[in-house]
Write a structure and sequence with these properties.
Blueprint (H helix, E strand, L loop, with lengths): L1 H30 L9 E2 L10 E3 L11 E5 L4 H12 L4 E5 L18 E4 L3 E3 L2 H10 L12
Parallel strand pairs: 3-4
Antiparallel strand pairs: 1-6, 2-4, 3-5, 5-6
């Protein structure tokens, strides 16, 4: 009796393993969420508005690039980008966008806030891309988190 039970159990376990691995392969090929590609969009910046304020960073003397943040003051996603740049001591300009008309973003085809202009000609559109792009450049080669 025990001899006939063992082969059926092995067949069931092997079948479940095969179904599980096929499901995993299918998930990786078709259903897995895609990672964001870390790339900036080149834009025409002839009509960029003036920044409303400038934030001085602790490591601004080592900074060889210019960052402009387009934001709403009360937006939690904008706050996350500001906190990220403040944590690493980056200096940046801030442009406050009017939430009703968004006239400050007329130069760009992208209308969502926040977005960042990197060196005044590359547009970083999502907050994950901001972190990704700034960490891939030489921005953080010398920067360490600011210790109070």
């Amino acid at each position: 009796m025990f001899g006939s039970y063992l082969p059926r159990t092995l067949v069931r376990v092997a079948g479940l393993a095969g179904v599980g691995s096929a499901g995993l392969v299918g998930w990786n090929l078709w259903g897995a969420p895609r990672r964001a590609v870390c790339e900036a969009v080149e834009i025409d910046t002839t009509n960029i508005p003036r920044p409303t304020r400038t934030v001085k960073g602790v490591a601004q003397d080592k900074q060889d690039f210019h960052v402009t943040l387009f934001q709403y003051q009360t937006c939690p996603f904008c706050s996350k980008v500001r906190a990220y740049m403040d944590y690493y001591g980056l200096g940046y300009d801030v442009v406050e966008v009017n939430p009703l008309f968004r006239s400050e973003t007329k130069f760009s085809t992208y209308r969502k806030i926040p977005f960042v202009l990197y060196n005044d000609h590359k547009e970083l559109r999502k907050r994950e891309l901001v972190r990704c792009h700034l960490s891939r450049t030489n921005a953080f080669r010398f920067f360490r988190p600011h210790q109070k």
